[in-house]
Amino acid sequence: MKTLSISKSMQICMAAILFVITVLYTNKAQAQTTTAEEHTIERTVKGIISGTDGPLKDVNVFLKGTITGTTTNGKGEFTFPTPLNTGDVLTFSYLGYTTKNVKIKKDTTFIALSLTEEYVEFVGAPNSNQPYKSKQQKSLEE
């Protein structure tokens, strides 16, 4: 049997380790690329929003953290005006109902959501049935 010198066996060992590291690094890079591609898939999202008495008109639907949004029509339907990516969050709000957030998943194209009523107490001055009187001086009348 032939014996190899220590330096030759070290070269073979280093080459094998370098090959394994290269293979593992390449597989990791491919996995990250796939995940990034899933986030860039844009899709149009539609939906219908209802409450306890049926469809809700004029529900605010907007992309969280932006001013981009729309409102529902008389049938509670909406179509979001811009394409959305995986991970985006839509916020649904309507006076007298609890605000809800919905995270867009990779297969989300339609959202059917039911908002729950929220007790809202309006605070204001009581009606005194007295005519309004201005606190400004009446210098123009003189």
CATH fold name of the largest domain = Immunoglobulin-like
Structural class: alpha+beta
Biggest sheet: strands, sense, closure?
Answer: 4 strands, mixed
Query: How many discrete structural domains?
Result: 2
Number of strands: 8
What is the alpha-carbon Rg in Å?
Answer: 32 Å
- Element order, helices and strands? HEEEEEEEE
Name the average pLDDT: 80
Give the key terms.
142 residues, alpha+beta, Immunoglobulin-like, four-stranded mixed beta sheet, four-stranded antiparallel beta sheet, 1 helix, 24% helix, elongated, CarboxyPept-like_regulatory
Structure in a nutshell:
The protein is built from one helix and eight strands, in the order αββββββββ.
What's the SSE blueprint?
Layout: H1 6-39, E1 46-51, E2 54-55, E3 60-63, E4 69-71, E5 77-79, E6 89-93, E7 100-103, E8 110-114
Parallel strand pairs: 1-8
Antiparallel strand pairs: 1-2, 1-5, 3-4, 3-6, 6-7
Describe this structure in words.
The chain has 142 residues and is α+β, with helices and mostly antiparallel strands. The chain has two domains: 32 residues; 69 residues, Carboxypeptidase-like, regulatory domain (Immunoglobulin-like). It is 24% helix and 23% strand. It contains one helix and eight strands, in the order H-E-E-E-E-E-E-E-E. Strands 1, 2, 5 and 8 form a four-stranded mixed sheet that branches. The protein has a four-stranded antiparallel sheet with strand order 4-3-6-7, with no helix packed on it. Strand 6 and strand 7 form a beta hairpin. The longest helix has 34 residues. The N and C termini lie far apart (125 Å). The model has no long low-confidence stretch (mean pLDDT 80).
